Each structure stands twice: as structure tokens, then as C-alpha cells.
Amino acid sequence: MAKTIAITNKKSGVAKTITAATMSYLLTKMGYKALLIDYDG
Predict the structure, then answer these.
(1) Maximum CA pair distance of the chain?
(2) SS3 state at 18
(3) For residues 2 and 10, what is the distance between their CA atoms, to the nearest angstrom?
(4) pLDDT tens for residues 8-17?
């Protein structure tokens, strides 16, 4: 079963990208498959 984790904040410059990248990295190290999409729209 797939799960979705979203990291959001209206303020810019609060390290959302590095937080998401680190979380994705750690999940893959634990054996999970991760898809990271960074959108600055």
C-alpha cells in the first residue's frame, strides 16, 4: 500500500527541500521505495 507524505509551509526559505530530500534518503536506507517531487509553483 502506498503512503503519501507532504512537507508544506507557506513561508519560503524554511528548508522544505532539504527536509524532503533527507527523509527520502533515510526511507530508502530503511528499505522503502521513495519518489521525491519538489515543486516550486
Answers:
(1) 33
(2) helix
(3) 26
(4) 888 888 888 9
Nearest to 5 by CA among 13, 27, 41, 30: 27
Instruction: Collect all residues with Cβ–Cβ distance below 8 Å to 23 and sequence separation of at least 6.
Output: 5, 7
| 10 SS3 class | coil
User: CA-to-CA distance for 2 and 17, rounded, in angstroms?
Assistant: 21
pTM: 0.74
Residue 19: other Cβ atoms inside 10 A = 12
DSSP alpha helix (H) spans, 1-41: 16-29
